[in-house]
């Protein structure tokens, strides 16, 4: 068995839907032994959402690989006791309940420390566990709206737009995984576990980057720019003879090569376009010169010509085209995972590449409750079959 970065780390996963499963999937991809604890009788609601094949949700399969599943009714004494036994030997607990739910289960920070002082508890939520919005329900669309993200997304004269994916869920899950690996390193130094919190709101705010910095420095509220860059020109989508291309000549040297390839290098001597400040002020006129030249050739030819000159440039691809792009396939960002009895499912691969300890698939997404006896045996927890059955039965 090859070693992975998180080989030997045991994770109890109480999460469901997207943000939490995305976090624990990444931990599992890096080698952690992730045990997904699900409510009977139906388990994670996402099991029953999205296109499916042979009763397998592709949505569920794509975010729950490299996990094993057990069913525990945490409303019952037996189920809660079984969970505590797991926590006693685990390294990490990940949950995405509303703030306060763990405490209601009798799993406050102090109570968890009594069970296992080395346990790292990662909580994913909407707005944080403290503050005036701590108790609010949170969904991606609402958080995108409240964060200011939508206010800078869309065309200049259009309505605010959300991104095409639930970015606040995904960012929260990503930051939670980042927090877990840092807390594991801190435990190496201190011997103690700690609480890690990643909220959807904090995560998306961190992505405001220079737009937030501009506002904090000047008080000027950023506006929607469409596909233009707010502080650089030219930059954006430009029409060719048969469709748009994305071009980002973001330094003076790249811009000079770009305009030279178009036969427009002389524009840089014009008083309207000498400096970036002038180019931003006269963006519309500059874009007009560029589009007139680009209209003389096709998308594919311009992408080839401009990349040959070191100008960042690409086609505007749909998701299907992107997932069949030769570079994407070369990087193994589309993989096929066999699910016994159901066949192969294609899904996204591993975005982080390790030279010596690579991510890999050890388990496909699990059937509900398929690994209870196996997990308790592997983790060295004595539990009879009757006890496991009682712990997994609603109201047991």
From TrEMBL:
A UniProt-annotated Pfam family: CoA_transf_3
Entry superkingdom: Bacteria
Parts forming coiled coils: none
Record's keyword terms, sorted: Transferase
Gene3D superfamilies: Crotonobetainyl-coa:carnitine coa-transferase, domain 1, formyl-coa transferase, domain 3
GO molecular function (one): CoA-transferase activity
Identification of the protein by name: Crotonobetainyl-CoA:carnitine CoA-transferase CaiB
